[in-house]
Amino acid sequence: MKDERIHTVHIQDLAKSYRRKHALQPLQLKLMKGVTGLLGPNGAGKTTFMSLLATLVKPSNGTAQIYGHDLIDGARDIRSLLGYMPQRVNVPGQLTGEELLLYAASMKGIKDAAARKQEAERVLNEVNLLERSGDRLKGYSGGMRQRIGIAQALIGQPRLLLFDEPTAGLDPSERIRFRNLVRGLGQERTVLLSTHIVSDLDSTCEYVVVFHKGRLHFQGTLQELADQAAGKVWETIVSPLQAEEWYAKRLVVSGSREGDGMRLRLIADEIPTAEAKSVEPTLEDGYVAVLKENML
Q1: In whole angstroms, how far apart are CA 116 and each of 61, 110, 113, 167?
Q2: Domain identity same for 167 and 274
Q3: Which of 64, 149, 158, 289 has CB atoms 3.0–4.6 Å from 11's, for a disulfide?
Q4: Alpha carbon of 202 to those of 8, 35, 95, 197, 292: distances in Å?
Q5: Tens of pLDDT along 159-196?
Q6: Whole-angstrom Cα distance, residue 76 to residue 54?
């Protein structure tokens, strides 16, 4: 039987510390083909984890097998099969979009000039920037720079794709376009999508992992994450004054004005008021429930 590790990403006790700060606690995780969402608040360790998998930093402990290559000994081989979009996309403003992607194609080992140009045009079309390919990057808006960052990650048809907060700065239509693109990519590749926006996962990912303060708190399907809040989600209408008290004392997921009162959706182990009604949990409810002990 063929070793499945050549088709997956296996993480074993992977950890990263900076002096006395533990950015990532020892982690056990397996990423299969498809789209996995990496969810967590800012500072949860998501970017550290991405940087480790992208071989940009070395782990303090542990390792990973990425499509059969060791994270440390096989770093060069890993870089040849991955595409990475960092959280902050810094681009040389004097280059055009096409020039940047031609350079990226060269770095990916595409030697033929015609093939490099064809690949650059393909990814520019994927992110809806083909018509602006001749413009210098210094004239690109923030959203356009995000899209060129996505494009360079797609060069060379990588088997492992790492996107760190890719939808930041995208307008609604481009966010939808990106979600559709990622959904298609996940059919043949392993995609890890880092975000703190729960809605980015709902229509894109098959699996989700939740980080908080450098620790893994959950891994499973989207439905399994929502189920973490089963029987714990309530809706109730209270006065604005009471609402302020609930926000201070309870885990209010959302609130909206209704007449003279406030309709609150909250997480609680027991019914919070006699008038409260139990409701079906959403992905966001499950996320809050998983991190409940850390958010009180």
Answers
A1: 38, 6, 5, 26
A2: no
A3: 64
A4: 23, 11, 36, 10, 20
A5: 999 999 898 888 888 888 888 899 889 988 999 999 87
A6: 10
